[in-house]
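hey m, so remember when u said the tokens were messed up on ur end? i reran from scratch. heres the input so u can diff it against urs
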Amino acid sequence: MPAAVPLGFAFNRTRQAYLATQLSVAGTHWSRWRGLMGAAAENFPAGKGLWIVPCHGVHTLAMRFPIDVVYLDDDRVVVYARPNLKPWRLAPVRLEARSVLELPGNTLQSTGTAVGDRIEIELGKTPGEAGSA
């Protein structure tokens, strides 16, 4: 996974479930383009996540494992969710999206995350520091 910082977390406020407890941010042109390309699946286990800001769509070119993707609007409400996006694919562009969470496969299913859910993202804090759960 790229050395994207700072770390934080993503919490599905609607479902009361953590999507990522070790969330990195891709906020530069290069880090957004690179995303998870070349990363190994064992370096992106459950609990990890990459928040791409700003972003209207993603690709899985040069990736070696499927991921779940969550598109968020300005209010961090899920506007599109795609489970199990396989390597070497292009996800759709959603103009209403302002950012995208890339998560390990099965995160959407295990948390029940769906369109309309409100996602809380905190940077520079651990889940315990924020008192979200």
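this time it looks ok to me. The chain has a mean pLDDT of 92. if urs says something different then somethings off w ur setup not the seq
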